[in-house]
Design goal:
The chain is an alpha/beta fold and 351 residues long. It is built from 9 helices and 10 strands. It folds into 3 domains: 79 residues, no CATH class; 118 residues, no CATH class; 149 residues, no CATH class. The chain has a 4-stranded mixed sheet, covered by helices on one side. A hairpin with a 5-residue loop joins strand 1 and strand 2. Helix 2 crosses helix 4. The two termini are 24 Å apart. 32% of the residues are buried. The structure holds zinc ion (3 copies).
């Protein structure tokens, strides 16, 4: 994440809605990554020039669920980030409004990183065959009334589905304990699922599969059988020698998505560090090996700082040589997607 500020000079966090110093209501413009003051009617203040007509997203204006600005010429009243939504939960029920706000904040963080990495992004409204949708769905089944079917967080054909209960801390911790996971966050889910989406794009590139399979395994291996086995028998023995997490050992596609998610954790956190500390270099200016090296130092320091505060490790993972090779392949894949490189067979991407 980059460092952001209000026009009055105060430091503003990416999720903020209001300046703590001048008290102005603020909106974030995803076209220039800057905050702007918003007037009472929801428009960017100081119109009359190029700013004329830009306004706070209606999800921000009506529900305080978004702090992004929509363009003046917008077809809808939504910002770029909210355009990715297909379904949101019924806001008149329970805590859905506050859960949705949490989901939106995390989705915006994911989109910010994907945009920062220069990845091709479009909504499924714009590109019905290749675009992306988010479904934020309430699991009515879990309340015991047998309404609807259980909602599973996951990815299918361009749609990232998130069970809104993932935004509810107690429920999420219960799930984390049941699955014996050392890390479970809304942002982590979204990063993982975005990996499945971009994998689908990459498979259209000539030669991609041939380079992917020696590293991750056979992607066409029976998926439901593998997942059933994982949930029945647990992770592969000695999983930590080859995988970033136990779940990554379930199937090569899950290994890819877990590794992709970790690449985004690494990229975003290195970017944040470079914005706060002069001696840290922006990950865009680091080679892959230097990124891994910097991330080793930074994640160790993060864990130690948390321990100093009596808290648990924010990054309870170890990157061994096998995982490093997988992360390198994700790094190369992002480069390929960014440059719209379509052939992997003739000219392998630079490492
Ligand atoms: Zn201010
Ligand atoms: Zn919005
Ligand atoms: Zn997955």
């Amino acid at each position: 994440m980059i460092r952001l500020g209000c026009h009055c000079g105060a430091e503003i966090s990416f999720d903020d809605r209001q300046c703590p110093r001048c008290q102005k209501r603020l909106g974030f413009d995803p076209t220039d990554f800057c905050f702007y003051p918003i007037d009472q009617d929801g428009f960017v203040e100081g119109g009359g020039s190029s700013m004329d007509g830009r306004a706070l997203c209606s999800n921000g204006q009506d529900y305080d669920a978004c702090n992004w600005i929509r363009p003046a010429a917008s077809q809808t009243s939504l910002c770029y980030g909210c355009e990715f939504n297909r379904y949101i939960p019924n806001l008149s029920r329970g805590h859905n409004l506050s859960l949705w706000r949490t989901l939106e904040n995390n989705k915006k963080r994911l989109l910010f990183s994907l945009m920062g990495l220069g990845l091709p992004l479009s909504t499924r409204w714009e590109c019905p065959d290749s675009g992306l949708f988010f479904d934020f769905l309430e699991d009515l089944h879990e309340e015991g009334n047998n309404e609807g079917s259980p909602i599973t967080t996951g990815y299918l054909d361009g749609v990232i589905t998130i069970n809104v209960l993932e935004a509810e801390p107690i429920s999420r911790i219960r799930q984390q304990q049941a699955a014996r996971e050392v890390y479970r966050t809304v942002l982590g889910h979204m990063r993982h699922e975005s990996g499945h989406y971009f994998y689908q794009h990459l498979t259209q590139d000539q030669g991609f599969q041939g380079q992917y399979e020696p590293i991750f395994g056979i992607a066409s291996a029976d998926y439901s059988e593998a997942l059933n086995r994982y949930y029945r028998d647990g992770a592969a023995e000695n999983w930590s020698e080859s995988f970033i997490s136990p779940y990554a050992s379930a199937h090569p596609l899950e290994d890819w998505a877990e590794t992709w998610g970790h690449y985004l954790h690494m990229y975003d956190t290195l970017e944040t560090a470079s914005n706060f500390f002069e001696h840290c270099t922006n990950p865009d200016r680091l080679s892959f090996d230097d990124k891994i090296c910097a991330w080793g130092d930074l994640s160790t320091a993060l864990n130690e700082m948390n321990r100093s505060l009596g808290m648990s490790d924010p990054y309870p993972f170890a990157i061994n040589e096998r995982v490093k090779d997988k992360l390198r392949f994700v790094n190369d894949s992002i480069l390929a997607l960014k440059t719209r490189k379509k052939s992997w067979a003739v000219d392998p991407p630079p490492s």
